[in-house]
Structures are given as C-alpha cells and as structure tokens.
Amino acid sequence: MELIKLDIRKAGAELTAELKAKAAQANELLHSGKGAGNDFLGWVNLPSSISDAEIAAIKAQAAKLRAKADAVVCIGIGGSYLGARAVLEAMSDPFEYLKKEHGNPAVIFAGQNISEDYMFELLEALKDHSIATIVISKSGTTTEPAIAFRIIKEEIEKRYGKSEAKERIVAVTDKARGALKTLADNEGYPTFVIPDNVGGRFSVLTPVGLLPLAVGGVDIEALVAGAAAMEKATGCDVPVEENLSAQYAIARNVLYGNGKKIEILGSYEPKLQYINEWWKQLYGESEGKDGKGIFPASVTLTADLHSMGQYIQEGERILFETIISVAEPEHKMVIESDRDNLDGLNFLAGKRISDVNKMAELGVRLAHVDGGVPNIRVEIPRVDERSLGALIYFFEKACGISGYMLGVNPFNQPGVEAYKKNMFALLDKPGYEEESKAIKARL
Ligand code: PA5
Questions:
Q1: Residues classed as catalytic
Q2: Fold of the domain spanning 46-219
Q3: Residue 139 CA: which ligand 1 atom is closest?
Q4: Which of 141, 229, 311, 397 could make an SS bond with 234 (beta carbons 3.0 to 4.6 A apart)?
Q5: Whose CA is nearest to atom 15 of ligand 1?
Q6: 139 CA from centroid of ligand 1 (Å)
Q7: Ligand 1 site-directed mutation target among 138, 198, 286, most atoms within 8 Å of CB
Q8: What is the pLDDT of residue 417?
C-alpha cells in the first residue's frame, strides 16, 4: 500500500526539466553532504539507521516510566517538543480523559511557555497522580524548559526523595555537552542522546520524539518503519517523476516564484492539528531567512472555514494550500434519518460522516482553486503510525530539497537568538551587562 499520495495537478506548477534537475541536484546534496549546513544531515538516514538496540532501550525505559507513573510530564520546546506532541495527538483518543479506564499514562507537555498560571495549574492537577518526567533539551540551556524542569524536579524530589527521583526523571540531551548533561550525570538520571548531526526540528525520530511516544503507547517501530519506507522512496537514486518529496518541493518553489508567499497547511482530521504545528516549525525555521521563504500557516478544517475561509477565498492572492487528506477514518458512523427533518439533513441519511467530510474537502478545493488559491493534496491511507512516520519523512526530505532550491541553509536558525539576547539583557543575566544598559536606555 502506498503510504503517501501527492496530487499537484491543482497547484498550477509544471515539473519542467530544469526544475526536475534542480530538485534532483538538491536531493543529491542532502545525500552527498556537500551542501550548506552539512553538519546537520543526520536525519537523512535516521529511519534506516536506528538500531534495534536503540529502539529496545527506548521501549525499556518507556516501560519503566509507564509502570511508575500515571502522568508523565514531557518537558521541551520547539524541536524538542512539537514532533512528539504531533504524533501523540494524532494517535490519541481526544476524549480519553473522560473515560474511567485509561490505558496509557497521560503525557503532559510543559516547558514550551513561561506562563506562571500554566505551571501552577499543572502542579495542582498533578497532586493526585503518580508522576515522572522526561526532560528534553539539546543545548540544555533553553530557558522555558529549564524553568519547568526546575519546578517538576523539585516536586518529584519532594514527593519521592532523591534516590527514587533517579527512577522518575529521564534526560534526553547532547551526548557530552551542556548543562542538562552535566546535571543528569551528577544526579545519576538515565539519559538518551540527541545526535550531534540532527537539529531540533528534524529530531522526532530520535529519542526526542520516540521516548515520549513510547511512553504514550505509540508503536514507535511502526512509526520508524513508515519513515524508512519514505526514506527509500525519496532517495537520490529515485527519479523526480517518482520522488514525491522532490515534487512537493518543486511545486512550492514555483508557487513562491509566482508570488504565493504563504502556504496554509490544513487537514479535515482535527487529530492532525499538531502535525501543522510541527510542520510550521520545520518549514519556518528552515526557510525563513536571508529575507526569503514561504510563511507557513495552518488551518484545521472544517472549523476554520468558518473563521479563515472568507480570507482564503477572497483576500490577498498570496496564498496556496496544502491539504493532508486521510483516505479512511478509524471508525464508522452513519448519519441517521430524522422523523421531523427540521434541519433538512435527511438527504444525508445513510451516508457516513466521512462521506460528508470528503465532499466538504472536494468542494472547498474547487472553490479555493477557482478563487486563485492553488492546492496541493497529500493523502495518507489512515492515521496510524506507519502513515505518520512516512508523512514526517516526506515533509523533512521535501524541506531539505526545498531549502536548497531556495538557496538558503535549511539547517540553521540564527534568527531565534535575537529575542533571547533581549530577554536576558532585560532580566540582567550575568554576562549581559552592556546589552542590559543599551536595551534599558531604549525603553
Ligand atoms: O529546531 C531547533 O533547533 C529549535 O526549535 C530547538 O529545538 C529549540 O529551541 C529547543 O532547543 P533545545 O533542545 O536546545 O532546548
């Protein structure tokens, strides 16, 4: 079964020989390691190179945390957070919390904001639960997760003592450097390594994503297998005519050249909402630099047709859409006939809800294309681990190709430092004395 189908017929982007050659060359650079940012290409062969021993170690650690805790706080931000959340939300029953029997521990995310209320309310909510934490930070110095970890670590030590804390705290970080590595070594926490050559936004298929996902009950082997299938299907030996990542990259490149500066990713399956968030970081951080890059935006459908739909249909013509379409839902529900038919919906009686969803998708696609919003359609067979693994790798590979076609280094993010410098100067961090003076003079 094909794990991904790509339809660019409504994108208005022709795969010319020149573009195909450019995309093939970009893909070649990802594999040869001769392009910009080549010290961060570890993700290219990640799915096929993860060892059975590594998967087994992750699963064993996840089993320990699952046995200890019914709430596992997963601390991290950006690339150390979004991938796990995206897959977990896609694979979870959104109403699990209403059920008496919970099969899996709750995986709760923290460290992706600096909200006092969020931390306070989280601690309150955890009071009656047995807790553990996974703290994820490659640098080990990122402010948001560091603050959250201080608080959760203290809570765990207070409740269970320092010795038991070693059974309930796991760190995922650099193999040798950084504050978190030092702390984990000093305290004796189990650690998992974020490879040097894998940047945050490409790290979901490392322990960064795999450990929290295994704790949450996701089949990480199937996830990796799906990604490995897509790694093979997008290799540089695969012609562009068959390489879906290359084709998606070309379509984006053409649309950007035609003035389509904003790409909206959307899906008619609300479980994929955090896939949007993960994708926005992947493309935003990879391409938004040197005064260039498509702005990645997202919608959840059909909800946002009732809020953003007007703009998409008739606003500035600088948009194109990429829709992740799910061929088959997991469950089956048929719309029943109603005796009074006051809502006038009896014409739908006997149809599945997904039949209506599919016609909404088709109708919107045609309306938006007619309104000047080109459409790219990415179809996955169902929302399961294999499809999600394939989807993740499909987007990662396309992002690398697209970034090189755009002429940027897709693997750095120099722009994210600017706010940190200001924040530290405003907070009088030692070492920032000059910046503090300068910024305060501007206030
Ligand atoms: O993609 C990136 O590099 C960033 O989003 C980082 O993942 C994010 O800033 C978190 O960094 P760290 O893992 O060092 O705490």
A1: 285, 306, 420
A2: Rossmann fold (3.40.50)
A3: 14
A4: 397
A5: 137
A6: 7
A7: 138
A8: 87
pLDDT category of residue 57 using cuts at 50, 70 and 90: very high
pLDDT tens digits for range 2-24:
899 999 999 999 999 999 999 99
CA of 181 to the centre of ligand 1 (A): 15
Show the 3-state SS of the chain. CCCCEEECCCCCCCCCHHHHHHHHHHHHHHHHCCCCCHHHCCCCCHHHHCCHHHHHHHHHHHHHHHHHCCEEEEECCHHHCHHHHHHHHHHCCCCHHHCCCCCCCEEEEECCCCCHHHHHHHHHHHCCCCEEEEEEECCCCCHHHHHHHHHHHHHHHHHHHHHHHHHHEEEEECCCCCHHHHHHHHHCCCEEECCCCCCHHHCCCCHHHHHHHHHCCCCHHHHHHHHHHHHHHCCCCCCCCCCHHHHHHHHHHHHHHCCCCEEEEEECCHHHHHHHHHHHHHHHHHHCECCECCEEEEEECCHHHHCCHHHHHHCCCCEEEEEEEECCCCCCCECCCCCCCCCCCHHHCCCEHHHHHHHHHHHHHHHHHHCCCCEEEEEECCCCHHHHHHHHHHHHHHHHHHHHHHCCCCCCCHHHHHHHHHHHHHCCCCCCHHHHHHHHHCC
**Distance (Å) from CA 193 to ligand 1 centroid:** 14
Write the residue with the smallest CA distance to atom 5 of ligand 1: 78
User: 392-439: per-residue pLDDT in tens?
Assistant: 999 999 999 999 999 999 999 999 888 999 999 999 999 999 999 999
Same CATH fold assignment for domains 5-38+224-414 and 46-219: yes
Residue among 75, 80, 192 whose CB has most ligand 1 atoms within 8 A, to mutate: 80
Using the predicted structure, report yes or no on whether residue 79 has a pLDDT greater than 90.
yes
In this prediction, residue 7 carries a pLDDT of 98
> What CATH architecture does domain 5-38+224-414 belong to?
3-Layer(aba) Sandwich (3.40)
Mean pLDDT calculated for residue range 75-80: 97
Closest C-alpha to ligand 1, atom 2: 200
Q: Which residue's CA is the nearest one to ligand 1's atom 3?
A: 200
pLDDT at 376 over 90: yes
List residues near ligand 1 (CB under 6 A): 77-80, 137-139, 142, 145, 199-201, 285, 413
Domains of the chain, residue spans: 5-38+224-414, 46-219
CA 142 to centroid of ligand 1, rounded, Å: 8
